């Protein structure tokens, strides 16, 4: 395991994760937040998992699987993206399977990610984009110490002529 907190452990991708990624990445309900419009083939996901070079400095991103530490069940995914070492920041996205939500996994993940980003990567800030109507995620990020810095009007297209606002959330490391 990579990082642990309470009942959550974050780990790198493993070959057996391809099946789970295949189910989650091909769920059309998630495409709006993942900016995907087409399904992924099992082959593409297997290649991704098997060739995933987990170096955030090279790839400017890192995908971690979220496990329940007591059962070792994979319950979600954390994506670190747009890594900018020069400006000491990156974006974070989190997905917890609907059957495992509201059980503290997401908050533990964000706390682990903050520790990793601030103490290991020596970043100044982490940010997230959350749709303005996603009250549960807005509350989660606020509880984890993220502050709403602004709203991106009509940012995500949700239909032929419909758009949704997105909140820009930021957690800035406070130096002691």
Can you offer a commentary on this structure?
The chain is of the alpha+beta class and 176 residues long. The chain has helices spanning 17-25, 31-34, 42-51, 56-59, 105-120, 135-143; strands at residues 3-5, 8-11, 62-68, 74-84, 89-96, 125-131, 147-159, 162-172. Strands 1-2-3-4-5-6-8-7 form an eight-stranded mixed β-sheet. A hairpin with a 5-residue loop joins strand 3 and strand 4 (74-84). Helix 1 crosses helix 3. It is globular. 25% of the residues are buried.
Summarize the helices and strands and which ones pair or pack:
Blueprint: E1 3-5, E2 8-11, H1 17-25, H2 31-34, H3 42-51, H4 56-59, E3 62-68, E4 74-84, E5 89-96, H5 105-120, E6 125-131, H6 135-143, E7 147-159, E8 162-172
Parallel strand pairs: 5-6
Antiparallel strand pairs: 1-2, 2-3, 3-4, 4-5, 6-8, 7-8
Task: Offer a few descriptive terms.
176 residues, 6 helices, globular, 8-stranded mixed sheet, alpha+beta, single chain
């Amino acid at each position: 395991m990579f990082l642990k907190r309470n009942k959550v452990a974050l780990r790198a991708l493993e070959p057996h994760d391809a099946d789970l990624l295949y189910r989650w990445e091909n769920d059309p309900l998630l495409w709006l937040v993942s900016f995907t419009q087409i399904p992924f083939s099992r082959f593409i996901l297997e290649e991704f998992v098997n060739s995933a070079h987990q170096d955030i400095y090279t790839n400017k991103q890192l995908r971690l699987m979220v496990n329940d530490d007591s059962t070792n069940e994979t319950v979600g995914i954390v994506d670190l993206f747009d890594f900018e070492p020069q400006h000491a920041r990156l974006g974070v996205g989190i997905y917890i399977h609907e059957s495992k939500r509201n059980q503290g996994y997401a908050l533990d993940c964000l706390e682990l990610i903050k520790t990793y980003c601030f103490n290991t990567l020596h970043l100044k800030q982490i940010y997230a984009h959350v749709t303005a109507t996603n009250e549960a995620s807005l509350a989660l990020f606020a509880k984890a110490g993220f502050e709403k810095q602004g709203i991106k009007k009509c940012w995500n297209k949700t239909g032929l002529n419909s758009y949704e606002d997105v909140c820009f959330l930021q957690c800035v490391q406070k130096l002691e």
